[in-house]
Design goal:
5-stranded mixed β-sheet, about 10% strand, 11 strands, two-stranded antiparallel ribbon, Arc Repressor Mutant, subunit A, alpha+beta, 3 domains
Length: about 425
Amino acid sequence: MRMKPTYFLLQEQKQILSQRQIESLRILSMDAQELREFMAQEQDENPLLNFTESRTHQAGFPAGTPGPWGEIHNIPAPDEETVQDFLLAQLRLDDYTTEEREALQTLAGAVDERGFLMGSPEELSEIFRIPQPLLHRCLHVLQNLDPPGVCCFSLEECLLKQLYIKGERDEVLLRIVQHHLADIAKGRTRALARLLKVDISHVYNAAAKLAGLTPNPLNGLIGRAAQYAIPDIVITWENGGWEIRISNDWFDGFGHCDYYEKLAQGTADEGLRDYLQEKAQRVRFLQMALEKRRDTLLRISNSLAVHHAGFFLRGDSLSALTMADLAEELQIHQSTISRAIKNKYMQHPRGVCEMRSLFVKGVPSKGIFPKISQEAVKTRICQLVAEEDKSNPRSDEQIMQLLAEQGIQISRRTVSKYREGLAIKGMHARRVCQGNT
C-alpha cells in the first residue's frame, strides 16, 4: 500500500536582524575608547559628518542617600568577551532543561572566532557525548542566533543559511553555493554558465549576490578589550537624586556639514548627488544609533542605581539582580543588556566596577524580597561566625537553621561551600584554633 504524502504547516516567530540593526548593536557594545576611534574613522570617510567631543551629558534620577565621589579613574580592563559569551547572551537559558543548557554551553564553546562550529555533528556528538537528538535540537537553536549564518559547519552551509533568511530561492544561485564556489572565486564565469546551461548574466548576478553575504559571520563582532578602560558611566548623588553621566557622549556635538548638504541639493551631477545622499543617510543612521546607545545606557544605569543604592553609597551587599530580571523590568531583550554593558565600567560614590559584576544571582528568601544575593548570604554567614560562642563554634547545620529563621533558604552543603569560599575553617578547626590562642 502506497502512503500519501502528508503536509504540515509550521508557524514560527523569528526576529531577523538587518545589517544596520547588527551595526547598531555593535555600536551599543562599544566602550568609550572604541566609540572615539570609530567616530574618528567615520569622520575621515564622510565629508558630511561634523562632530566635536561634547561635554558629558547628565541626567538626574531620584533615589538613595548621599555619599562622596571622586574623579574619573582609569583601571585595567578584563579579558575580551568570548564567542561563547556572545552567543549565550542571546538566549534565556532558564527556558531550557538542564541537559539542553549544558549542551548549548558546550556547543557554543566549540564555535571558533569566525563563527563556525569545529568538526562535524557526528564528531561533536561522540567527543562531547551529546545524544544525536539533543545535539540537533541545540544546533537548531544556535544556528538561528544572530548574526545570520553563525554556528554552521562549513562556508557553504553558512551562505545557504544567509540566502534562506533573505528569502532567496534562485536554484542556480543555490547550486553555485553548494557545488561551485571555487569556480566563482577563480572567475570561471563563462565555463560555469556553460556547465549550468544558463546565460552568463545569470552567473554574474549570482556572483554579485554572493559578494553581499558574510563568509565569516562573527568577523568584527567579537572585539578586543582595551589595555586600560575609562568608566563609561559616572553616577553621583547630587541634590537628593542620582546624577548619571555618560562619558564621551557624542550625540550633543553631532551634526551635518551644511556646505555639502547644499551642494547635494544644487548639483546637476547625478553621481555626486547620489554619493552625497548616501553619506547623508549614513549620518542620520549614526545619529539614531548613538542616541539609542545613550538612552539604553541611561535606562540601565538608572535601574542599577536604584537596585544597588545601598552598595553604591554604604558598601552594603549587592541586591539580587540578573540580566533577565532587568530585561523584564525595562521591557528590552536580555541580549541588548548584555551588549550594552560589554567591557564597560561604572564609577560610583565608592569606586569603580565593571558593570557586568553588578548582576548577581540570588537565593530564595522569605523576607521582604523574594531573593537575596549570594554576597549578602556570605556576609550573613561571616556575621554568624563572628558572633558565635568562641568555645562552642556553630556547625554548618546550625548556621543553615539560623539562616532559615531569617528567611534565607539554603542547604547545609551550600553553607559549607560559601564558608570554604570565604576561607572560614570548619567548626572543629575553629575550636582548635581558638583553644590555641
